[in-house]
Design goal:
10 helices, elongated, transcription regulation, HTH_TetR, DNA-binding
Length: 228
């Protein structure tokens, strides 16, 4: 890459970052449904045609913001997992859950973009899947390590649910039995239910000491899913 090419690439990256930062500001002020490329361009002092060279449509800008949010959340989960080191599976699970909660409380509008109400008229493309899977892969890894190491209780599974659980296991973790896959996904869903209840106000006038309540709840999730 020549010096001129490097300078152009740096300039493009800087403008792209500025566009996304202004878009996040609009998310916080107006919500994703009202995100407007023209408004972003106006706030940055750009003409709309110039901004379209970076993001040809609102949906492409939304997709970039969604991928960034999923990646940031996934990175927080991975950092917590790595920091837990050789901790017991329950403790590692709790550490990752607390990192998810902390990230969500620190970035509420980005969390709402990926786990809140769908944006009218927008359908996330497959390019969002790798980033969206990062946090889930951390949780799968905890269950996988627990089964290989200190042990994992395989919870009973009804005959009616077994075909669905077997399909689920084949898709997300072929090396884990259906019982584990079902328990793991249930715990994953309940984790984000707890975070969403707190973030979107359902715990208002209900739970006061939310940090201790969250830790108690996710400890129960871990043990209920079979982690020792």
């Amino acid at each position: 890459m020549t010096t001129a090419q490097g300078a152009r690439e740096r300039a493009r990256n800087e403008v792209t970052a500025a566009i996304k930062e202004e878009a996040r500001r609009q998310l916080a002020a107006e919500g994703a449904a009202k995100l407007s490329l023209r408004a972003v361009a106006r706030e940055l002092g750009m003409v709309s045609s110039a901004l379209y060279r970076y993001f040809p449509s609102r949906d492409e800008l939304l997709t970039a913001l969604i991928i960034d949010a999923y990646d940031a959340l996934g990175a927080a989960a991975e950092k917590a997992r790595d920091a837990a080191g050789e901790a017991a599976p329950v403790d590692c699970f709790i550490a990752v859950c607390e990192a998810v909660r902390t990230w969500a409380l620190t970035h509420p509008h980005e969390y709402a973009l990926i786990y809140g109400s769908p944006v009218p008229g927008y359908a996330a493309p497959e390019t969002t899947i790798p980033a969206a899977a990062r946090t889930g892969m951390v949780l799968i890894g905890i269950f996988r390590d627990a089964r290989r190491g200190p042990g994992l209780d395989e919870l009973p599974l009804s005959a009616e649910l077994r075909p669905e659980a077997a399909r689920l296991a084949a898709e997300i973790a072929p090396d884990l039995p259906p019982e584990v896959a079902a328990a793991m996904v249930a715990a994953w869903a309940q984790l984000f239910g707890l975070v969403s209840f707190e973030l979107f106000g359902q715990f208002n006038n209900v739970i006061e000491d939310r940090e201790r309540f969250f830790r108690h709840a996710v400890t129960g999730l871990a043990r209920g899913a079979g982690l020792r």
